[in-house]
Design brief:
alpha+beta
């Protein structure tokens, strides 16, 4: 594929990095121009326009003639769609463009905030299961029952390859970062994460964060969330969940596991915390936002406050109105595990919050105080 072919520049021009890419390619062209022989320069002076065109065509440089460092510099600046477009040019470029080196950066930039160890583990299981099924079909002499996760002929939002007017499919390694990225990007892969204010900010879940399975919708740039069934409650689905309401789980544990608190001894009034809470023993834990308050015997004066020396830690949930049974609770600083009852629910592990996490909860604060 010739470097200056019209379809390549047409595709690349749509991306923010196009000017940078053209500058780099300009340097590459300059490099080869200065090192060309005098004979090739003389050939450019033919009197016949037809002959001149033929000579230019013969001397045109391929993108693969660029030095490896220049070519790598170009590829690592391409956005995902352009990188896929380049991968459709030829087998040599494809082997470069599907490299985990390039796609790991795109994975981190777009998905790093909401993808945790549990999601990666789920992907590994997905790949292992697919590989096993494919092997089984091959042994039986039957065609594969599942399509490859990605072919270089992309979904509709990828640019279409026009090399030789063909649309040949070319499979990716199932365990590549590029395959994982595009499985997420196309919504084919459901992954575990956590959702703030589940069920469209239902009043019963305000300022909480619960586990769910998520699938991305590229048409709306939002997610579909599935909350698992528990007790008598059936599976619940929520659509159009924005990025701002998602996060990776803070710990790589089951939502039914009690978190062992390691911050109780350092908690002081005014500290921001999350605490596990569940309605009953059959329910999974959710993380609820609160702050450390003062004991009733303390007037809140910082000069005389000794609440941090007490074995009792007061937790306040100021999104609820004064007098609400959900407004305030206490836990034992040294012996806290899970405390509560069937009427008020059960309080589990506590984690102390800092900076960005606190800002996220403040941004989700309800417009009205809850009863």
């Amino acid at each position: 594929m010739r470097l200056l072919s019209p379809w390549f520049w047409k595709d690349v021009s749509f991306f923010p990095s196009s000017s940078l890419i053209k500058d780099i390619l300009g340097l590459g062209l300059g490099f080869f121009t200065t090192t060309s022989s005098k004979m090739s320069l003389k050939k450019m002076s033919f009197t016949s326009k037809v002959d001149n065109f033929e000579e230019v065509e013969e001397s045109a440089m391929s993108v693969l003639d660029l030095p490896d460092l220049v070519l790598e510099c170009i590829l690592e600046r391409l956005p995902p769609a352009a990188l896929c477009s380049m991968a459709g040019v030829c087998s040599s470029l494809r082997s470069r463009c599907i490299s985990d080196h390039f796609w790991a950066k795109h994975m981190k930039n777009k998905w790093g905030r909401i993808i945790g160890p549990a999601a990666y583990r789920e992907w590994q299981w997905h790949v292992a299961l697919k590989t096993r099924k494919d092997s089984s079909h091959l042994k039986q002499g039957k065609p594969k029952g599942l399509m490859r996760i990605l072919s270089i002929v992309r979904p509709s939002w990828w640019l279409q390859s026009k090399v030789d007017g063909s649309n040949k499919q070319c499979s990716l390694p199932d365990d590549s970062v590029m395959a994982w990225f595009l499985a997420l990007e196309t919504g084919r892969f459901w992954f575990p994460a956590q959702v703030y204010n589940r069920e469209n900010g239902h009043v019963g879940f305000m300022l909480s964060c619960y586990d769910a399975e998520l699938s991305y919708d590229p048409r709306t740039d939002t997610f579909q969330a599935r909350y698992p069934p528990h007790g008598r409650r059936a599976e619940t689905t929520e659509n159009n969940v924005p990025w701002e309401r998602l996060r990776a789980p803070p710990f790589d544990t089951s939502p039914h596991d009690l978190h062992i608190s390691d911050c109780l001894n350092e908690l002081r009034p005014g500290d921001n915390i999350e605490i596990q809470w569940r309605r009953n023993k059959e329910f999974p834990y959710g993380w609820w936002y609160g702050v450390v308050g003062h004991l009733e015997s303390c007037d809140g004066n910082e000069n005389y406050c000794r609440c941090h020396n007490s074995d009792t830690v007061v937790l306040e949930f100021n999104q609820y109105t004064l007098g609400s049974r959900w407004r305030r609770t206490t836990v034992h600083r040294k012996e806290h595990r899970e405390e509560g009852n069937e009427a008020d629910g059960f309080y589990g592990g506590i984690r102390k919050l800092y900076n960005e996490e606190i800002s996220t909860w403040k941004r989700l604060w309800p417009s009205e105080i809850l009863e």
